[in-house]
Amino acid sequence: MQDFLNLTVNTIKNISVWSVLDILVVAFIFYKGYMLIKETRAEQLLKGIILIVALIPISYVLRLNMLYVILSKTITIGVLTIVIIFQPEIRRALEHLGRTAFDDIHPIQDKEELGKVINEIVNAVESLSKSKTGALIAIEQSTGLGEVIQTGTKIDGIVSSAILENIFVVNTPLHDGATIIRENRITASGCVLPLTGNGEINKKLGTRHRAGIGISEVSDAIIVIVSEETGTISLAINGRLTRNYDKEKLRTVLTKVIESKQNRRVKTAGERVKTWIKKLAKGNK
């Protein structure tokens, strides 16, 4: 016991600030990694991997040679298998990291102009909801939706409730698909969105809602959905769907979410400018 205490004390004495920082960084990475896979298929896989890793030393100590060999080989081959099977989750995680690191590359919109755009969207959605006309509108944020835009018909028109309502009129060429809004422009309509692979969502939700959730899982776009059957207004953000919005609630949430992203980009950009100024000042000394 004394030897153990001495070893513990010596270890604590030898810990430097950099060692503590190293531990904190690694812990943060593991925490963020877990949050990315939480409530996904990858979470169950992680539990299985932990179980296998725990069984390997146990089987070695108990001299269960066959079990030890099987588990060891499973870990070796498993890495490649994980990359292949969980490619969508890995891609989503990397895209999330990319959004976090570079979410200030898009221009900042004027608040008055942003308010007008939101107002036009809300008025159109309210009208579509009353007439039970299905609609799917994706409002681009930091993550570019260029690949999605290529699947539809380019419009490049101002955001207006009249245009949005006409786009989604049943049996018109562009109604069956998503309309993409970039800044203050309707960029394209009739776009094809990726469907969600989440098997836990309500089975009653149709393709329109699944597509809205799907694109929100791989981007930070805000998706407005109007149900063709009930006229219910829904929002999909970061892979989560919330329903039963009215006009005022929709306007409030859109304004709050978009402005919070804008403010974060302004803050990040401001901090970078300050850093550049400091570097220039040091260089001129």
Automatic annotation (TrEMBL):
TM spans (from-to): 15-33, 45-62
GO MF annotation, one: ATP binding
Keyword Transmembrane: yes
Catalytic reaction equation(s): 2 ATP = 3',3'-c-di-AMP + 2 diphosphate
Highest taxon above the source species: Bacteria
Keywords from the named record: ATP-binding, Cell membrane, Membrane, Nucleotide-binding, Nucleotidyltransferase, Transferase, Transmembrane, Transmembrane helix
One GO BP annotation of this record: cAMP biosynthetic process
Enzyme class: transferase
EC identifiers of the protein: 2.7.7.85
Domain (DAC) ranges: 87-247
Pfam families referenced in this protein's UniProt entry, alphabetically: CdaA_N (PF19293), DAC (PF02457)
Family per record: Belongs to the adenylate cyclase family. DacA/CdaA subfamily.
Biological function: Catalyzes the condensation of 2 ATP molecules into cyclic di-AMP (c-di-AMP), a second messenger used to regulate differing processes in different bacteria.
Subunit organization: Probably a homodimer.
Protein name: Diadenylate cyclase
Organism of derivation: Clostridium paridis
Organism ancestry: Bacteria, Bacillati, Bacillota, Clostridia, Eubacteriales
Encoding gene per record: dacA
